[in-house]
Amino acid sequence: MISAPPRVPAAAAGTPPFRFRSAPAPIRIRCAAAAAAAAPAAPTLYEVLGLRAGATVREIKAAYRRLARERHPDVAGAAPGAAAEFVRLHDAYATLSDPDSRARYDHDRGGVARRPRWGGVSGYGRPRRTWETDQCW
């Protein structure tokens, strides 16, 4: 059996019997290159310590100690952002003083060229295959 549609009162005849949802906000999709170009460039960890990219461990340690004496929150007092700046300084030192995390950081930012791990002709991080390694004993 087919029923008749519900009757709408005359006062509400011009409005629909249901509510419309508001239109969703437009979605803006950017590629990573456009997002990186639009965002302000954050200083590198080397710039935080005031060093060049190929600095030695001694230079990193000396720069950290010098800057820590100046920017420590106990010394800087109630300067706005002193604690956050010191934390950023310490994070830069913690990353750059450890050889593994420094190599990972340099690789991720694409700045400092690294030596290949293996001396093989193929490069790409794998050892070169030779006749002895190809044999199944």
TrEMBL record:
SMART domains membership: DnaJ (SM00271)
Record-linked Pfam families: DnaJ
Domain annotation J: ranges: 44-109
GO cellular component, one term: endoplasmic reticulum
Name used for this protein in its record: J domain-containing protein
